[in-house]
Write a structure and sequence with these properties.
Blueprint: H1 5-21, H2 24-33, E1 39-46, H3 58-64, E2 68-74, E3 79-85, H4 99-116, E4 120-126, E5 130-137, H5 140-151, H6 154-157, H7 167-174, E6 182-187, H8 195-204, E7 206-213, H9 215-218, E8 225-229, E9 236-240, H10 244-268, E10 271-276, H11 283-290
Helix pairs in contact: 1-4, 1-5, 2-4, 4-5, 7-8
């Protein structure tokens, strides 16, 4: 089967951009966030300056009055699984990259980091149904093939008339045979999430939600009257982007949906990272992996 030359060029551009972003610090962030999560406790030792405070054995310190830290051994054969939303809402992009293309960069960042450390990773694509599953493998060629498969689904996305169902990704993770995996769901989360399924996945695997959004979903620029068309209903019309009531309604809708997603994340103890389509250097994703979004895992 022949592959569109433009898609091949797009894969090369994505890979080139991510290689520029990747650095020793980022690989360290990946190692801490992903491989560091695949650790088993081995022993205790006394604290030495420079030890990570997150590894302090607080209960032992309370009993003995001496600072101790936990030592861990890394689990071998870590598997990373990414589930990407290929529904029609991902085609939106106000200026710059679409949400669909932003997901490709997210996949490339995690996938290339995994490849550099020799970790296995698999990719799946979902919308109103599960569209495709690419089995786990290692290496940069596997990432390139995964990106090609993903980008080939972009045209199909516009013909889908229903919202993406994130629960398909959760069920897929539950069917994975490997005992403990690092799982990512990358989506704009326009549909509801089954919290019972979420809890079941969390018991079996480690899970991070990456919420991809476009700033124009939160606040359209003041450019007067514009044409619009619904991805799902096909209805079209015109909007006055200068109207205050429209801008407030748009902001309220965005914050309400994001607030619900944050509440689900907090209740379930699952990491949540928000990634803007305007953030071409992937600052939000890198910061989320390094710092705040994994504490519940």
């Amino acid at each position: 089967m022949s592959v569109d030359k433009e898609i091949i060029k797009q894969v090369s551009r994505i890979e080139f951009s991510i290689r520029k972003i990747l650095s020793g610090m980022l690989i360290g962030a990946y190692s801490t966030a992903l491989r560091g999560q695949g650790m088993t406790f081995s022993d205790l030792r006394q604290y030495t300056p420079g030890d990570d405070i997150r590894n302090f054995a607080w209960q032992v310190m309370a009993r003995t009055g001496e600072p101790f830290v936990k030592q861990f051994e890394e689990e071998r054969d870590l598997e990373v699984h990414l589930a990407l939303d290929v529904g029609p809402s991902m085609l939106f992009g106000g200026s710059g990259n679409s949400k669909f293309l932003t997901q490709a960069y997210n996949m490339a960042l995690v996938g290339l980091s995994a490849a550099k450390l020799g970790d296995k990773f698999g990719v799946s694509f979902f919308a109103d149904t599960m569209k495709k599953v690419i089995p786990v493998s290692k290496g940069e060629d596997h990432l390139r093939r995964s990106l090609l498969n993903y980008l080939e689904l972009e045209q199909e996305a516009s013909s889908i008339k229903q919202k993406s169902n994130v629960n398909h990704a959760l069920r897929h993770f539950l069917r994975l045979r490997t005992k403990r995996c690092m799982c990512f769901i990358i989506s704009d989360f326009t549909s509801s999430v089954d919290e019972k399924l979420l809890a079941m996945v969390k018991q079996k695997h480690k899970l991070i939600l990456i919420h991809v959004y476009d700033p124009y979903e939160k606040a359209m620029p003041k450019i007067g009257w514009v044409n619009y068309k619904s991805y799902f209903s096909g209805l079209s019309g015109i909007l006055n982007t200068n109207r205050r009531s429209l801008k407030q309604s748009q902001l309220d809708s965005f914050e309400n949906k994001l607030g619900k997603l944050k509440n689900i994340s907090r209740r379930s103890g699952i990491g949540l990272i928000s990634q803007s389509t305007h953030d071409e250097k992937m600052v939000e994703l890198i910061k989320g992996l390094k710092l705040g979004s994994l504490h519940g895992l």
